[in-house]
Specification:
The protein has 152 residues and is mainly alpha-helical. It is 69% helix and 0% strand. The protein starts with a helix and ends in a 14-residue tail after the last helix.
């Protein structure tokens, strides 16, 4: 691999990792992000898999689809050392808590939405089952003897 290609890979890798993280934390599927970004099916996977050259316009389209601020995104990915040579992870320690809290809120929100959606799907399936059983019962194909249960 040429030195320029190595540098490109080293510089682009954190960008791709942050995009993957944002997509994972969003309440959108990868396909939905592709649609919102104006990409064809599978294009985002190709970009994230480094099978296609990532361009700034791609990054901006993805950030727009995820409703992310480009300035905040790039500053997270490419932090510069603070004055005095203190590593950014220590110099900006206080700033880390807010993005982590936002990530946690988004992650918890995604889990809640996913669980709610799953429960709604189960409810719809049970309704369909109940309707099917009612139809079978109406036709005399199924007879249910419902016994009263009492608590002692």
């Amino acid at each position: 691999m040429s030195p320029s290609k190595q540098l490109w890979t080293v510089e682009v890798q954190p960008l791709l990792e942050e995009i993957r993280r944002l997509v994972r934390l969003s309440d959108l599927s990868q396909r939905q992000v592709e649609k919102l970004a104006g990409f064809s099916k599978g294009y985002l996977s190709q970009l994230l898999g480094q099978n296609l050259d990532l361009k700034v316009r791609h990054v901006l389209a993805i950030l727009n689809a995820l409703d992310e601020d480009p300035g905040a995104f790039f500053s997270r990915v490419y932090r510069r050392p603070a004055a005095g040579g203190i590593p950014p992870s220590l110099a900006d320690f206080g700033g880390h808590s807010e993005p982590l809290a936002e990530d946690l809120d988004r992650w918890v929100g995604k889990i809640y939405r996913d669980k709610s959606e799953m429960l709604e799907q189960i409810r719809r399936r049970l309704d369909r089952c109940e309707a099917a059983v009612h139809q079978l019962e109406k036709r005399g194909l199924v007879l249910f003897d419902v016994a009263e249960t009492s608590e002692d």
